[in-house]
Write a structure and sequence with these properties.
The structure is a single chain. By secondary structure, the chain is of the alpha/beta class. About 45% of the residues lie in helices and about 20% in strands. It has a seven-stranded mixed sheet with strand order 18-19-17-16-20-23-24. A five-stranded mixed barrel has the order 1-3-4-5-6. The protein is elongated.
Length: about 800
């Protein structure tokens, strides 16, 4: 085709190019991967081989609309094509002439599929005028090309330029030269869009001048960098030699001291701390090499520099947000949540959240630690947990004095370092497990920490300077408040975290435990379904706890077994009662129902344990003998004393109960509580022991569906007990319908869930006479008649 001829083309296949511009009089190879572009190349190759190559305006787009494609491009001929792996097509084209698209037309070929076509016209290339030929454009371009090639030291490029310079046409020369030198798509597009020979030459000269200057600058930068690197390497080598010499002379401390001083100067510290540190750093720098004081002094300076003094977290005192977070993290615990909300509400009004120390008391696994973490999350504070279980050395709390080799700060100071703020939430876990020995009493050291009147100037033995703990929110946890020393307990507000009821455990498992274990084991709800009824079976048959830790372990075991079956090809598993036995084995626990037949000497007691409430069968037998009292079933000291008190109370009431005054000298009494391997203790079995012995002595059976709890005195009064919520739950599980409760526990019943109290008839008792009247089938014939004083559940006192 003659470059000066004018011609229009219709329905020429178009291939948009990304980051690539083809120029006339040049051959180029590139890969095509887009379906439409492959169809366009194949269609062009099947016809006259003409294809219009236009650059995309945005090279990052994988698909370009017509208005996103430059209209001026290069009309090319397809010279070759080769299929590559992955469906890509490698194409060789030769640029023929510049052309401008009049109209882009989406086209679908029956043979080649959908592609973009165009109606276009060739842009006529005017021959240079005489004046343009006389202008030294070609000479200037040639000189710049040679200079560029010499600058980069490319001999092959000079040979190529010599060949190009012999091009017959001026336009051809410009395009060939531009194809060799221009790399940027925008520069090549500017050349192809230039309208005249003069415009094209001037643009090429400007671009080449710019690139030559960039190359010059790059060379200068490389030389400067090389010189700097050589200088740095020399300096590094010299520095290393100096360090080695200083090390031989013991100068390590000098460099460390400089680092410490730089950190001191750049940080914010109280004036007294700054003065103390400055003095210590000066001493550290003057220590001789290998001094035994160096490690301790280094630890001291590092600790003092890393402690927070002014850094604070901004409190979020939005009670609605706090309630939302507590509900997200925990199910139930309404009383606990309400107390926390009240605590935050007071903090919002007073402007400070520190103050009363909270102590969460409850059995293991009920969420004491996690509730503390939720409080920190709700407040937006850092959370640090510190376990106190087994700590028996006061130095663990206060730190060691620096006179000792290997001295370290105490756990309180380390916790503050870990938090990095002066107002974290600091949790003292298992505070009731603190011990003491000849190294001191750590609970005494905790007094200063938890006393707001003292902790603004807490003194750690290692630091030797006061440290302010007044902005810290302290939370403690305990299983048994009796294990907390009284002075320490006096500084804390006890919040009971009760054991979970079965229905609460089901909800916790469904909302939190099962989703967490499914995620851990790579399972989804589509793969395994654990119905709520199944969760209840697991709770009753495979766990015996107040919290949910063992329940989560059983759910994890289920998930592991299910994962094995799914890995073998099963699509979905529904965990039924039968499947539980298959996966977990036979249930290790069972709730023994209460006896249905009234028997002599058999009473259902109620006990509280660390894993919840339990029913306790108490058996008593009266045998001819000499007045001995036999106690079996591994009873603790307090329970043995309760049994002795019960015997004395019965002896004092012998006439009222129809017993001979001297019955005790002729009768042996044996009290036994089954499950003898399990230790039992506590005073709350007092009325149950008295009732069992009275039944055995009088021969009158005890009502079958009745249970009782309460402490007794020698005068027969019934005293209040603890753990009532858990005991009543145990009674419901055992099928008991009537429960005797001390009158003074009436207020505690009001806090028991309604579904438990609705299932029971609760009788409040003041003395043992009321207990016997309510529990025995009948009163002894010679007994003194007592008035009916039974008070049903819910009746006003």
């Amino acid at each position: 085709m003659n470059e000066n001829s004018e011609k229009e083309y219709v329905m020429i296949p178009v291939v948009p190019l990304r980051g690539l511009v083809v120029l006339p009089y040049s051959a180029m190879s590139f890969d095509v991967g887009r379906e439409k572009s492959i169809s366009a190349i194949n269609s062009a190759a099947a016809g006259e081989s003409y294809v219009m190559l236009c650059a995309q305006k945005d090279a990052k787009k994988t698909e370009a609309e017509p208005d996103e494609i430059y209209r001026i491009g290069c009309l090319c001929k397809v010279k070759g094509r080769e299929k590559l792996e992955g469906g890509t097509l490698r194409v060789l084209v030769e640029g023929v002439t510049r052309a401008e698209v009049d109209e882009f037309i989406p086209f679908t070929s029956l043979e080649y599929g959908e592609y973009l076509a165009a109606n276009l016209h060739v842009l006529k290339e005017e021959e240079p005028t005489t004046a343009e030929k006389e202008a030294p454009f070609r000479k200037e371009i040639n000189e710049k090309c040679i200079s560029f090639a010499e600058k980069i030291g490319n001999a092959q490029l000079k040979t190529t330029l010599s060949f190009v310079s012999r091009s017959s046409g001026d336009n051809e020369y410009v395009f060939r030269t531009a194809n060799i030198f221009l790399q940027k798509p925008e520069d090549r597009q500017a050349i192809i869009e230039a309208k005249t020979y003069t415009d094209r030459c001037l643009m090429l000269i400007r671009i080449m001048t710019r690139e030559y200057e960039v190359l010059e600058l790059k060379k200068r930068l490389e030389e400067a960098v090389k010189e700097a690197i050589d200088r740095n390497q020399k300096e590094y080598f010299l520095r290393e030699q100096i360090k080695a010499a200083q090390k031989e002379l013991g100068a390590d401390e000098q460099s460390e001291a400089e680092e410490f001083r730089a950190k001191l100067n750049s940080g914010k510290y109280p004036d007294d701390i700054r003065a103390k540190l400055d003095k210590e750093i000066t001493r550290f720098a003057s220590l001789p090499a290998g001094s035994h004081e160096s490690p301790s002094m280094r630890t001291y300076i590092e600790t003092m520099l890393e402690l927070p003094y002014y850094e604070m977290s901004e409190d979020n005192l939005d009670v609605d947000n706090a309630r939302k977070i507590l509900d997200e993290d925990h199910y139930g615990l309404e009383k606990v949540k309400q107390r926390i909300i009240e605590y935050l509400a007071v903090g919002k009004l007073t402007g400070k959240i520190n103050g009363q120390i909270i102590c969460f008391v409850g059995p293991p696994g009920v969420g004491k630690t996690s509730v503390s973490a939720s409080i920190a999350r709700a407040l937006g504070r850092k959370f640090v947990r510190m376990s106190l279980g087994g700590i028996r050395d006061e130095a663990e709390i206060r730190g060691h004095r620096r006179t000792y080799i290997g001295a370290m700060p105490g756990r309180i100071i380390n916790a503050m370092k870990q938090a990095g703020t002066v107002n974290p939430v600091l949790l003292f876990d298992e505070i009731d497990k603190l011990a003491q020995d000849n190294h001191g009493d750590p609970s005494a050291a905790m007094l200063e920490v938890l006393d707001s009147a003292q902790n603004f100037a807490f003194r750690d033995h290692f630091l030797e300077v006061p440290y302010d703990l007044s902005k810290v929110l302290f939370i403690t946890t305990a299983n048994n408040p009796a294990g907390i020393p009284r002075p320490l307990l006096d500084r804390m507000e006890i919040i009971e975290v009760p054991s979970y009821l079965s229905n609460e455990k089901v909800e916790i498992a469904a909302r939190h435990l099962i989703p967490r274990q499914l995620e851990k084991h790579g399972l989804t709800k589509r793969m395994i379904n654990i119905p709520r009824e199944t969760i209840g079976e697991i709770i009753n048959g495979y766990t015996r706890e107040a919290g949910v830790r063992s329940l989560e372990r059983q759910i994890a075991a289920l998930c592991r077994k299910a994962a094995c079956d799914i890995a073998k090809g099963k699509k979905r598993i529904v965990v039924t009662k039968k499947k539980i036995v298959e996966y977990l084995g036979a249930p290790p626990f069972s709730f023994e129902p209460a006896e249905k037949v009234s028997e002599v000497g058999l009473v259902n007691g109620l006990a509280w344990t660390s894993v919840g409430g339990e029913t306790l069968e108490i058996e008593a037998a009266a045998l001819p003998g000499s007045g001995k009292l036999e106690l079996t079933g591994q009873l603790g000291d307090v329970m043995q004393e309760s049994a002795k008190a019960a015997i004395t109370c019965i002896r004092e009431r012998a006439n009222r109960l129809g017993l001979a005054n001297d019955f005790y000298g002729k009768t042996d009494v044996h009290i036994h509580i089954p499950e003898g391997a399990v230790p039992k203790d506590g005073p709350s079995a007092g009325i149950a022991l008295l009732t069992a012995v009275t039944s055995a002595l009088t021969g009158i059976p005890v009502k079958a569906a009745i249970a009782m709890t309460g402490e007794i005195t020698l005068r027969g009064r019934v005293l209040p007990i603890g753990g009532l919520r858990e005991k009543l739950l145990a009674a419901v599980r055992a099928g008991i319908t009537i429960v005797l409760v001390p009158e003074k526990n009436r207020k505690d019943v009001a806090e028991v869930p309604k579904d438990i109290t609705d299932a029971l008839t609760i009788i409040y008792v003041n003395d043992v006479d009321e207990v016997l009247r309510a529990s025995l089938i009948r009163m002894p014939q010679n007994a003194i008649r007592m008035p009916e004083t039974h008070i049903p559940a819910g009746a006003p006192s």
